[in-house]
Amino acid sequence: MKVLIVKVSALGDVVHALPVLAYLHATIPDVTVDWLVESSFAPLLEAHPLVHKVVRLDTKAWRKAGVQSSVIGSWRVIQQLRRQKYDVTLDLQGNSKSGLFTLFSGAPKRYGFDRSQAREWPNLLATNRRVKILSENHHVTSRYLQIARTALPSEANVPLCGPLPTEEKAAQAISSLLAEFGLSHGEFLVAHYGTTWQTKLWPLDHWLELVKTLVIDNGRQVVLTWGNEVEKSAAERIAEACQRTSKAGQVISEAGQGKVILWPRGNLQELVALLAAARLVIGADTGPVHIAAAVGTPTVSIYRVTDSRRNGPPGDGHIRLQAAMECSPCLRKSCELDHECGQSISVERVLCAVNSLLDGKRMSEV
Q1: Given this model, what pLDDT does residue 242 score?
Q2: Which residues of the chain have pLDDT under 50?
Q3: Distance (Å, rounded) from C-alpha 230 to C-alpha 235?
Q4: Is 4 exposed, middle or buried (0-12, 13-18, 19+ CB in 10 A)?
Q5: According to the model, what pLDDT value does residue 3 have?
Q6: Which residues of 304-339 are buried (b: 16+ CB within 10 A; e: fewer)?
Q7: 363 lies in a domain?
């Protein structure tokens, strides 16, 4: 049995789909699973023991180079897919782009979302097995698993996070950096400010206050991660807000020796290894939070326009905080209530969630 998973982006969504791998292998132990994904996220999957082959898309580069490059690039990928002679294709994306490759994958059975769940209607032309998602499958991973269970029914039950193993080379690189910064495995927290939409962001002044409290008042060791220059600038401001900081990033507090580190950006596998080594990860609805959950690290995550019950890491080891607004979640990328929405999740609320997990208390929503 040869199966193609079509889940091309974004980072968090790809991570949400990982349990489908576990389900397929639990159902058919000798199954061969390939995965079609954008090149920027391919490193997450290329060393994965449950993935046979990663097929890369370079749509961003193709668009930049022009229409002809897009056509040629797409055709080459289609030819690559058709040579594999897949038995089943699972389209977990549900848009027009994924539909193109699902349709021409060559698989006789092509499963995807029905009209009520497909993100773009042309996707419906690509699938010939359309799955109506049950209301009880509210979490995004449960939706992906329902498509897989419809295609290949079994009684197999798998966790809703992961699996996501850490690459050995990346783990060694992170261990060396942790030693260089004077950090120990399982002793530091990771705080990630950035996310994809402005309306998903928790206010920067809240981040400043939260990290200052954790580092100076509570003596915690906090690593600040970032993914682009805007996020790096925000992380630098957060680090600068920790008063009495030495050039080495050391902060002396009444609670002991706190420390804030602006982490150097590495590759995707190194990010996985860093998050696996952390004691706790704090962030909004963003890829690093979902990666942390997939590697088994507890998380505190913040949701404004997106739904914490749909997108948030499931289980007692994670706390999901929803904006205290009647209109949340709204899925709006811009809003006149953006400031009010961000302010509705207080620093005290996030700090309480962090301390609850650090103290070993189990809860999911506060």
Answers
A1: 85
A2: 245-247, 252-255
A3: 9
A4: buried
A5: 98
A6: bbbbbebbbbbeebbbbbbbebeebbbebeebeebe
A7: no
20 residue type, one letter: V
| Structure tokens given for 182 | 């004077």
Last residue of a domain, one of 151, 182, 206: 151
Same domain, 69 and 184: no
Task: Give ∠ CA 164-319-339 in degrees, rounded to 5.
Answer: 110
Owner of token pair 């030693």 = 179
Strand-by-strand arrangement of the 53-57 sheet: 53-57, 32-38, 2-6, 88-91, 109-113, 129-131
Beta pairing, strands 256-262 & 250-253 = antiparallel
CA end-to-end distance (rounded Å), the chain: 44
Radius of gyration over every alpha carbon of the chain, rounded to an integer in angstroms: 21
130-137: Cβ within 8 A, 24+ apart: none
Would you list the DSSP string of 216-231?
IIT--EEEEE-SSHHH
Please give the residue range of the domain that contains residue 132. Answer: 2-151
- Which candidate, 3, 27, 150, places its Cα nearest to that of 85? 3
- pLDDT for 94 equals 98
Q: What are phi and psi of 200, to 5 degrees?
A: -95, -15
Task: Please state, as a whole number, how many other Cβ atoms lie within 10 Å of the Cβ of residue 41.
Answer: 24
Cα three-residue angle 217-288-321, rounded to 5 degrees = 60
312 neighbors 220 (Cβ within 8 angstroms): no
The amino acid occupying position 300 is V
Nearest Cα neighbor of 281 from 192, 200, 177, 171 is: 192
Do both 197 and 283 map to the same domain?
Answer: yes
Contact residues for 304 (Cβ-Cβ < 8 A; gap 6+): 199, 200, 201, 202, 284, 285, 323, 325, 328, 329, 341, 342, 345
Tell me phi and psi for residue 46, to 5 degrees: -65, -25
Q: What is the pLDDT of residue 296?
A: 97
